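User: Predict the structure for this protein chain, please.
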Amino acid sequence: MTLGVYKLDLISTPVGLGVVCDSTIPKDAFVVEYVGEVLLGVDTQKRVDRRYQVELKTKAIWDGLTDVFIDADRCGNESRFVNHACRLNCGVFELEWTNTARLGIFAKEDIPPLRELTMCYRKANLSLFTCVCGHENCISKRP
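Assistant: Here is the predicted structure, written as structure tokens:
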């Protein structure tokens, strides 16, 4: 795993803002942490826009075990603008740092400079938008 510091920039895309890097990102490199508000499962349903919610595998003890989410809708960093694509070049992995569960976005392949960073949104979020990536096996083309 490569731990580098990558300068990420926002770009305009046909679906809104996206994220690129001005240098090559090697395969398996840590790109950026996905940050936002930490929410318990019961609180996620109260949000109008749930597209930026990512569920952690880690559970919280709050009146029993409960799901925990990171929601980048109201606050976050450039990671919230990494768009979905069916042919993705980044993956999201949960890791623990200083006894806290976190989400890291890692390169799944060598990513050349100025190539848009993409990932697969969690399955529950796929019902909240229409994919327009254009890939031949795009989920939006499936019956």
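The first helix runs from residue 41 to 44.
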